[in-house]
Amino acid sequence: MDISQTAEDSAQKAPTLPSSGGSSNGSVADFTVPEGEPGQPHEALFLVLAYLPVFELLSMSEACISLRDAVKNDVLQWLKIVVQRPLNYRLSDEILMELTSMANGKLRTLALVNCVKITDDGLQRVVGRNPLIDKIYIPVCTSLTPVGVIRAVKTLSKNGHRLKNLWINGIYNIKKEHFEALCSYLPMNQAQQEQQRLKPLLLNEHTKFPTLVDHKNHPVIDMGICPRCKEVSMVFDCPRKETCKLKIERSLTDCRGCKHCIPRCKECGGCVASDEQEDAVCADILCSDCWLKLPKCNFCNKPYCKQHANEKLCSLSSSGFVCDVCEVKFVGNLCYNIQD
């Protein structure tokens, strides 16, 4: 992918924004460019470039020559590289190297969300050329291995440099020895490790991508050792510890554990007792209280959790919707019968 060539091809035909010069009284006319009169981008657009994910940043570079030059020549917006939808499935090792080279070895944050084509060698080449990286977010990058992640973190830990954040949930086959090796390269003494263990992590919040700015509000590493099954996983807490029905039902002293050991509501993150488990269209578990609050499918009377709410199809009435399962099962058959 040639970023500069793409920008040059698009800059000739891209529309330009109104000029920021001259007086302004706040009227609509002040923001209208007369037909045929070119203008320059507003200065505010240059200030937001450093806060954009890669997809939006590349899109801005194709708007006009001024923005193209700003994206290409200014290192500031490349200090933090965030790749997520819709580019995550297209990102390869070669494209990643091209993107990270824009930082000139000064990259600080590397966030690759569900980038399934990135391999251990690709990650190693990036960290080898960017020794200042202090935040790595690589959740669900399934082509990475625990050994490859350890090698990358070890490379970054040279000369006293330490990572502030490491998110690796979704990488397969992480064992206890891998987790302990990673922790040995992270800046956590015994007191910090205990604080990390006690810091609450809720199921309904772990899918929210961090701001990548205030790392202090997030754990150093997102994985832990489950106190029940002793496997390396994300260890969740219950937001209602004192009134937790599951804790009372099973006479537990603590309802902390991974999602495989303790069923939890996708909406509120609370433990779900056996008598209050409700199903959602998206196969997630819901507690009775959250299930009652969510809109239901007109056919199967099941809701989506909010995370999967974008999967809802067009509603047949103003009081509900039709889920994708019922769309195929019922509505599709109805249309077929009408045609016959």
Automatic annotation (TrEMBL):
<protein>
    <recommendedName>
        <fullName>F-box domain-containing protein</fullName>
    </recommendedName>
</protein>
<dbReference type="InterPro" id="IPR050648">
    <property type="entry name" value="F-box_LRR-repeat"/>
</dbReference>
<feature type="compositionally biased region" description="Polar residues">
    <location>
        <begin position="17"/>
        <end position="27"/>
    </location>
</feature>
<feature type="region of interest" description="Disordered">
    <location>
        <begin position="1"/>
        <end position="36"/>
    </location>
</feature>
<dbReference type="GO" id="GO:0005737">
    <property type="term" value="C:cytoplasm"/>
</dbReference>
<dbReference type="InterPro" id="IPR032675">
    <property type="entry name" value="LRR_dom_sf"/>
</dbReference>
